[in-house]
Amino acid sequence: MATTSRILELYLPTFLLKTTFRILSKIVRRVKGRSWVKKLDASNEKDEWEGYLIAENVEHLEIGKDADMIILYAHGGAFVFGDALLPLKMFIDWIKTWKLNHGVNTQILSLEYRLSPKYSFPAARDNILACYQWLVTEKNIDPSKIVFAGDSAGGNLAIVSAIYLVNNPYLYSIDPPAAIVLLSPFLSGMLNTKSVIDNASYDSLDPTWLHRCMDAYIGDSNLLPSCSMVSPVFEHQLSGLPKVWACAGGYEILLDDIKNFIGKLIQNNVKAELVIEDTNFHDYAVGKATSRDGAYERSIKYIGKFLYD
């Protein structure tokens, strides 16, 4: 599976990757999403983002109503492809498991942010911040009930958005979210750590392809791949962030960057937890089919305990 993924990344044009994931997303929604998914009001397009509310009996709900927590989620896809509803099975498993284990109602807002190369940095980050501002100011949802989350490139966007919010309080008169959840986050465009070399033949991500995607994401912004705005592992101003939970597979190329970033958070007095599943590779926590040895199920329990205990 990992080898097939790397081949597709290297040789399939980006527009075909996007088309493939849209088709898969439609299939997932048709099979799983009839009573779980509601597209948010089209008026949100004025901020150039769209989103989907995922919750039990969603057709009868308003976002935030009777919710213990709302997760603002950014999907993966190396900034160039992906779909907000492709992780729908994971979202449903989160909601069901946490209700059973903790007696809570969780809602998820999965964001369709603007993709590269058509939209380069900071378009995707600004989509997340605009959506967060909409939740807080227009929907009157307290930041203490909102979590930023994402996988892979979406994890990058989640943490970069939180850092920007904390370090630029004069731009946003709202508090940061209550927590951040990062699933195999893509935290550095440099891709020059030991785990990139050691795990390149095992992981589902190809480093050459990731370099190309990062170049497309940076676009004409004149940033270097080492700039902390696109590679948060190099950020030094981390104090003030909410608590962070992260996970990584022992066979993924991003492992060292993830470990280094969590270490920096702890050094900056940010409460941070990292779970490493030794026998797994990139994004194992997003789908049971890509995980080994029960790691997918454990991640759901770990995140629920982190957020609700």
UniProtKB/TrEMBL annotation:
<feature type="active site">
    <location>
        <position position="152"/>
    </location>
</feature>
<dbReference type="InterPro" id="IPR013094">
    <property type="entry name" value="AB_hydrolase_3"/>
</dbReference>
<dbReference type="InterPro" id="IPR050300">
    <property type="entry name" value="GDXG_lipolytic_enzyme"/>
</dbReference>
<comment type="similarity">
    <text>Belongs to the 'GDXG' lipolytic enzyme family.</text>
</comment>
<feature type="domain" description="Alpha/beta hydrolase fold-3">
    <location>
        <begin position="71"/>
        <end position="285"/>
    </location>
</feature>
<dbReference type="InterPro" id="IPR029058">
    <property type="entry name" value="AB_hydrolase_fold"/>
</dbReference>
<protein>
    <submittedName>
        <fullName>Alpha/beta-hydrolase</fullName>
    </submittedName>
</protein>
<keyword id="KW-0378">Hydrolase</keyword>
<dbReference type="GO" id="GO:0016787">
    <property type="term" value="F:hydrolase activity"/>
</dbReference>
<dbReference type="InterPro" id="IPR033140">
    <property type="entry name" value="Lipase_GDXG_put_SER_AS"/>
</dbReference>
<dbReference type="Pfam" id="PF07859">
    <property type="entry name" value="Abhydrolase_3"/>
</dbReference>
